[in-house]
Amino acid sequence: MNSLKQKIQSIPLYAAILAGMVLGFLAGHFFPEQAAWAEPLGTIFLKLLRMLVIPLVFISIVDGICRAGTLEKLSSLGCRSAAYYLSTNALAVLTGLVLVNWIKPGQGVTLFGSHPHQAVSTQGLFNVIPDNIFRSFVQGDTLQIIFMAIITGIGLVLFENKTPSIRRAFSEANELFLGLTSQVIRLAPIGVFGLMAVLAKSLDWSALSGVLKFAAVILLGLLIHGALTLVIFFKVFS
User: Which residue ranges make up each domain of the chain?
Assistant: First the structure.
C-alpha cells in the first residue's frame, strides 16, 4: 500500500494533469450521461483557486515589497522590474503577431456576438485607485487590489520601526497562503478531469479544428517566449 502511494506521489504534476485531461475528455465524449457527476469536481477546484488567489496576490505583493528593505532598494528594483516587464511584454506581443499572421488560426472561424471597438478612456486609469478597498476585495478587482498592496507595502517600508509585528504577520500569512495554494494545486488532475468531462460532453466538433489551431499558436508562442525571450532577458537583467 505504501509503495503504491509512493509511486502515485512520484508522478510529476504536469503528467497527472495531462492524464486527467485525456481521461476527462474520453469520459465526457464516450459516456456523456455518466460524465455529469464529474462536473462538481471541476467546480470545486475552480472555487478553491478563486478563494485563495485574491488574498494571495495582496499578501505576496505586500510581503515582497517589505522584503526589499529600503525605499532606495525598492526604487532600483522597481526601475529594473519596469524595464524587464515592458521589454518582455513588447517581445511577447511581437511574437504573437508574427505567429498569428503566419499560421492564421482564425481563418474560417465565424465569431458571434462581436462588439464594435470602443475608444480607451483615461477614466480607466483612475479606476485603478479604489474608492472602497473592501468592495475591491469582494468584487475581485485585481488591479485595485494590486494598487492597494503596493501602497500598503510602501507604507510598511516607510514606517519600518513602528510596524515590525505587521510585517511579520504578512510574512507568515504569505507562507500560509502559499502552502494552501500548493495543496489545492495538487488537486488539479481531479479538477481538470471534471472540467474536461463537461467540456467534451458539450463540445461542438465542427469548431474543434479552429480551437486546436488556436491552442497550437498559444503553445508555440509560450514555448518561444519561455525558452528564448525570458532566458535571454534573465541573463541580461540578473
Answer: 15-83+131-203
